[in-house]
Prior knowledge:
The structure holds two protein chains of two kinds. Chain A is mainly beta. Chain A is 0% helix and 50% strand.
Amino acid sequence: GNSVTQMEGPVTLSEEAFLTINCTYTATGYPSLFWYVQYPGEGLQLLLKATKADDKGSNKGFEATYRKETTSFHLEKGSVQVSDSAVYFCALSSFGNEKLTFGTGTRLTIIP
Amino acid sequence: NAGVTQTPKFQVLKTGQSMTLQCAQDMNHEYMSWYRQDPGMGLRLIHYSVGAGITDQGEVPNGYNVSRSTTEDFPLRLLSAAPSQTSVYFCASSLGQGVLSTDTQYFGPGTRLTVL
């Protein structure tokens, strides 16, 4: 079956630091990969996605590259801001299957 | 567009009570789903629907019922609440054209449920 393993948190960084949140997956076939973000008190919203190997998803300064050879989709940002404080979820869905499988989430706190 | 709306935002129940969590979307999405979010466990799929009149079980369906009589609405019913159902519940929808697993899912703001 499908599964997602992501870096355990919480993660605390200073403003302008470099961010990496690791995500690896197990899936049948060729999954699509997603990062969702949940700001305090809100629902999840899509941050970025990649639908095939070597694709790079990007949004709001965040990037993640779909690496089939290492089954990974690590989230990176070069310079984080206080407003990036949130919980980040890695997720996947398989071809022909709308269902999302989520990782456990990583809580990120950025301090000024 | 209002997107995905959920009511209520908060609810406290006693063990054994029943209630319905409401979910509606105005984007004409075919696919709708319910998740529960528990600390350290991410989001787990409860039930989902690929269109009006069609529902199926997800990973953790026990204790919950759903129906989909219209494209817009997808209520989640707790038949006899238990403390183990204390959680935050999220409804989501996507365009859902069957083979398209690349669709973005849109989430509602959540319902925080406490069962005493």
